[in-house]
Amino acid sequence: MKGKQIITSWLAAKELKPFQFQEEAWEAYQQGKSGLVNAPTGFGKTFSLFLAVVIAWIDKHPEQYRKKYKNGLQLLWISPLRALAKDIARAMTEVLEELQIPWQVGIRSGDTSISTRASQKKQMPEIMIITPESLHILLAQRDYPAHFKHLTTIVADEWHELIGTKRGVMVELALSRLKGITAEENRPPLKIWGISATIGNLEEAMQVLMGTHYQDAVIIRAQLKKNIALKSVIPAEMDKYPWAGHLGLKMLPQAIPVIMASQTTLLFTNTRSQSEIWYQSLLTACPELAGAIALHHGSIDAELRIWVEEALHNGILKVVVCTASLDLGVDFRPVDTVIQVGSPKGVARFLQRAGRSGHQPNAISNIYFLPTHALELVEAAALKAAMEEELIESRMPVLLAWDVLLQYLMTLAVSDGFHANDIWEEVRNTYCYQHMTPEDWQWILAFLTTGGDALFSYDEFKKMDRSGNFFRCTSRMLAMRHRLHIGTIVSDVMMKVKFMSGGYVGVIEEGFISRLQPGDSFTLAGRNLEFVMTKDMTAFVRKSTSKRTIVPSWQGGRIPLSSNLGWMLRRKFNEALSRRTKDPELLALQPLFNLQEDLSHIPKDDELLIEHIQTEDGYHLFVYPFEGRLVHEVMAALLAWRISRITPITFSIAMNDYGFELLSDQPIPLTAENSKALFTTDNLTTELQASVNSTEMARRKFRDIAVIAGLIFQGYPGKNKANRHLQASSSLLFNVFRDYDPHNLLLQQAFNEAFFYQMEEARLRETLDRIAVSKIVVTHPEKLTPFCFPIKVDSLRDTMTSEKLADRIKKLIAANG
DNA sequence: GACCTGCTGCGGGATG
Q1: Residue A516, SS3?
Q2: pTM of this structure
Q3: What are the residue ranges of CATH 3.40.50.300 in chain A?
């Protein structure tokens, strides 16, 4: 083992010693195994595998490993982020230089220049770091197998980020093809490795990566624990802290000392508009932060974001206000403190964010939790317990994603073409498509060659030619369009925001701009801007001096509270009234809990609380399953439907992550006696269909599916079509399939996705099953309770502007006494 | 005494 000696002595010269898990990874790799490496952030997961490859290389060529050859591509490193790819390439290059190994490290991603691509094509670097999309683009090139002739190893970095997404499916498919090429050329099997943070289903994560073939893959777990110090910031005047709200600006004075005492702080918010508001407020409160504070979220111009990331790296910034855009990626060493404003919604996400600080072995990650309303403080106690018990969420792998398969087959068709029998074998051995039937496969092939039962008369849907079992796309126009559209991320159509004088600020939703009059001011990227005009999907602006500006809102995703966190939250309520609890969060909430108990009840984890409250608005029913807003939305609709079968009655519905409300102008006939029947899982599927508009939900899901499957052309880069266009064509296709091709697999997929992701059907069932064995506690409080107040405020918001809302809340309080 | 909602990720290439 010459390689290992060389590496360990090189490390020793730096006063470093490999961790045990790293040595285990080297060993396993040396034996030709595949597997998954799991370790907390900051312990060198990346290097465990990179050095394993280097060691094996030295052992293979002990005398001439420092000689320059044209070795060809040895190691393919899949990174989900372009920024991460750059960082890793830089680090690898440094190591190789120190070891005097003349290997090239290349990056292949969307920002790789045309000339670099061309030279890569002539001579591949020994190591290539690539995004899943770019990997498929390689597969879409003529003679693509030649690139991979010398490939021995593939590493999927940050695999926990990809599993559970269609980008992960792209990786599965690419691996199946690369394995196929290796087998065709009678080379030794590829070594396939994943690198993953801890998730609930690590075993499954590995199976997904390996496919159904590799039986003897290993999981290497680092027996290391990241030291995380979670500190809840308890509102100074707890008895005056709002019961509802999500911005948390009241806590600003308590956030400032934390920021000032730290070297560099990342302040995470849940939404882009919230980050804009916090940025402005911090700057107003501490003008001395000017130049040392920055803002980072997904709608800010990429160049500006890169500047912020670099400034963070170099320690120039004191604080960065951000959203999930800084969840992962580049290692920001100067960051020593993280502040989470509002609920992180999940344990894994919270850990991930905590790990952004103290990013070195044995350093402590400091994370402060800042509640935005009183009850949210319980989440801090729940998070603490969940971290101790390592109760980390699972990521469910995507199954039978037909849209991605259609795209992939087209990729193969535009490069060298494919033999259906070979590819069928390969695809069926991926985790995603293991249950694909021969009929499904035939349908897919027919759809790509003829357009299927619905689209057979339109030539643009006949994408491939068939001769026997060989499929190929001969149209150069289709091939080019296809290469442009590789990928599974379907973004909403956004409008660019540019200065009149040139200079790009960021993006904003069409709908937001359409509500502005020229001369109106709004805030983006922390700047006050005056709207001038729109032209070609671009909003032109100039600097504004106005003090009153509107903060835009973006219609982003709505992440529900995870079931792990919900479960822990329910458990924490058991301790709410116990004097023995040591959680400072629960102790601080004692007055609130006492009030809730006086007015109503605090549910234990084996109870379901239901509150009947009558106000001047009507009759309210509040239910608290703590299962996240998506489940609550569906449950509310289901319950409303079932109650309306007892008595003719109509409701309006509201919900948040903790519970939901049904509001009616007549008494709601739900009692402790009939409640079990109203929450039963009997006839669930049919009654869901009746109560929820699943067709509409499926129609919304279908838009992305149609784009990914290549049925809708989104236009050439930089010239995106307007949103209306996309909606219209996808809706049209949806109708055509429904009417003329009801067995269409893409249509079925749309319904499946609606049930799985939008209604969280599995989780709904589990919730109902839990309720079936729970004790149901029905109370009749005389006024609004601390539990119901946030939901009530939320339901008012739908129908009112914010000023009216403030008045309304005052009235509510007054009426509540 | 109680306010403002809603994340992220990627991206042709052949020819003159």
Answers
A1: coil
A2: 0.93
A3: 2-221, 228-388
